[in-house]
Design a protein that fits this description.
The chain is α+β, with helices and mostly antiparallel strands. The protein contains three helices and five strands. The chain has a five-stranded antiparallel β-sheet. The protein starts with a helix and ends with a strand.
Length: 158
C-alpha cells in the first residue's frame, strides 16, 4: 500500500514539476515528454520474466546507495514515451537514516547526465522516502517499465 501511494505521489509531483519548469531543450517540450517514474519492484530482479535483460548492478553505485551522503545526486536515465533518445532526471539526497533515504526530485530533465544541478530551486522541497532496499532497486530496470528507467550514476561532492 505504501509503495502504491509513493508511486502515485511521485507521478503527481513530477507532473506538477514538469508543468512549472521551462524545458531544458526543445525535445523536452514535445507532447508526451514526461519525467520518469521511479517504481520500486514488486519482485526481485532475479524473478524477471524471460526476455527482459538485466545487467548486474554496478557495485560502486550499490555501495553509494547503501551509504548515502547528504547532497548526493542520483542521475536516472530513461527514454521518453515515443522516443528513442535517452534523457536524464535528477534526485538529491536530503536526508539519510539507517533504514531510509529521502530524495528531492529535480524540477526539470536534461539531455546531459552531467547537467549543472547547483542552481537554487533546481530541486523541489517535497522529499520522496525510500527504504534502503527500495533504493537499491533503482539500479535495475523493472519489468513493464516502458521508459526503461534506471539509476546510472551517483554524483558525490568530494
Amino acid at each position: 500500500m505504501l509503495a502504491i501511494l509513493r508511486i502515485t505521489g511521485l507521478g503527481l509531483l513530477l507532473g506538477s514539476a514538469a508543468c512549472q519548469s521551462q524545458p531544458a531543450s526543445p525535445p523536452a517540450a514535445e507532447a508526451g515528454a514526461a519525467a520518469p517514474a521511479i517504481i520500486p519492484a514488486a519482485a526481485p530482479a532475479s524473478a524477471a520474466p524471460a526476455g527482459l535483460l538485466t545487467a548486474p548492478p554496478d557495485t560502486t553505485l550499490a555501495r553509494r546507495i547503501q551509504r548515502p551522503q547528504l547532497n548526493d545526486v542520483y542521475v536516472v536515465a530513461y527514454q521518453p514515451a515515443g522516443g528513442t533518445g535517452e534523457r536524464y532526471f535528477f534526485y538529491r539526497v536530503s536526508r539519510a537514516t539507517p533504514t531510509t533515504v529521502d530524495l528531492l526530485p529535480a524540477r526539470q530533465e536534461s539531455s546531459d547526465p552531467a547537467a549543472d544541478v547547483s542552481a537554487a530551486g533546481f530541486f523541489t522541497d517535497k522529499a520522496l522516502t525510500y527504504t534502503r532496499a527500495e533504493a537499491l532497486e533503482l539500479l535495475q530496470e523493472q519489468a513493464g517499465d516502458v521508459q526503461h528507467t534506471r539509476l546510472v550514476q551517483i554524483r558525490r561532492e568530494k
